[in-house]
Design brief:
The chain is mainly alpha-helical and about 325 residues long. The chain contains 13 helices and no strands.
Length: about 325
């Protein structure tokens, strides 16, 4: 079976389970610095030079590149952008309100004007400020209320870039596909020398672009156990920026070849955006908690919050979108 056939046969439902697994990896990874302090080595960091959370975020971007390209090639119009907006912003808005409430409960005392400014800048992705003065003041990572939200800006920029590439006919031109993959990889290789947000964006977009390439050339990619495992293991020998694409492709292939898993609730986004504030709250309530215990309690504690987000905010928004389309 090829990657293209997997999309035709709807085996891609397994990608929902993969995204949930990646979100859980992010929560587990963050348990180390949140329990022991910023700079603490996280799982996999000593072995591969990058934390488990870093690999998981890269995996998210690869899967997004795969799925967003599939959507873009079906047509880029109002429905495409409405779908992207409804998938991100209602859930993000609700998460910001919950994050703000937890921050205030933990000791933050921002003014109403500061609250409004913080919310508006974050929900529009202009600048997601992770710190609120006085929040979680006694925690090892004080005042940082929701660290993982930084990646959403880069994801939306990747969507825009993907849409532009498809609209320009890039997906139909082999040389443009190769140029995209090569250019993104080169930028990722030199990302440390790039300015500002571009330094962060470059390796993530490299993973996203390889997801784009994988979808465009889906009929040429055979799903094979040996190739998928070999690709997934490249993280041990290659530098992170170069390994993100092959590792993520290996994980996607493994997911698609596994027995079909159809999740009735897509809580991966909720797990990602609520994991940090839930973990910070647990640390505030249980000072001195170790990273392993925090990882377990954070996953368990975040799931019902993510489930409520899906049931009350995300799914209703997506249902309205489908009804209108």
């Amino acid at each position: 079976m090829t990657l293209g056939q997997a999309f035709v046969t709807r085996q891609t439902h397994n990608l929902d389970a993969l995204r949930l697994g990646l979100a859980i990896c992010v929560i587990v990874s963050h348990a180390w610095p949140l329990a022991l302090g910023a700079g603490t080595m996280e799982p996999l960091q000593e072995l591969t030079g990058r934390s488990l959370g870093g690999w998981a975020v890269g995996g998210f971007f690869f899967v997004s590149g795969l799925l967003i390209t599939a959507s873009a090639q079906r047509g880029i119009g109002k429905a495409f952008w409405v779908a992207r907006a409804r998938r991100i912003f209602p859930g993000l808005g609700a998460a910001l309100l919950v994050t703000l409430a937890l921050a205030v409960a933990s000791g933050a005392t921002p003014s109403i004007e500061q609250n409004v400014n913080w919310f508006l800048r974050a929900v529009t992705l202009v600048s997601i400020e992770h710190r609120l003065a006085g929040a979680f003041a006694a925690n090892p990572v004080a005042e940082v209320v929701n660290g993982p939200l930084w990646s959403l800006f880069h994801e939306v920029v990747s969507y825009v870039t993907c849409a532009a590439f498809v609209m320009l006919g890039g997906a139909r031109q082999t040389w443009m596909v190769l140029a995209l993959a090569l250019g993104a990889t080169v930028l990722a290789a030199v990302h440390h020398s790039l300015p500002g947000r571009l330094a962060t964006f470059a390796p993530l977009f490299a993973a996203f672009s390889w997801g784009m390439v994988a979808y465009i050339w889906r009929d040429w990619i055979s799903l094979c156990w040996s190739v998928s495992i070999g690709s997934a293991m490249l993280g041990v020998v290659l530098q992170w920026s170069f390994a993100l694409g092959p590792v993520a492709l290996g994980l996607v292939m493994l997911a698609l070849m596994a027995p079909k898993v159809a999740l009735s609730r897509d809580v991966s986004f909720g797990m990602y955006i609520y994991g940090w504030p839930v973990a910070q709250s647990i640390v505030a309530l249980q000072p001195g908690i170790g990273p392993i215990a925090l990882a377990v309690l954070s996953v368990i504690g975040t799931y019902p919050v993510a489930l409520l987000s899906w049931q009350l905010v995300e799914r209703p928004s997506l249902t309205r979108r489908r009804a209108k389309v």
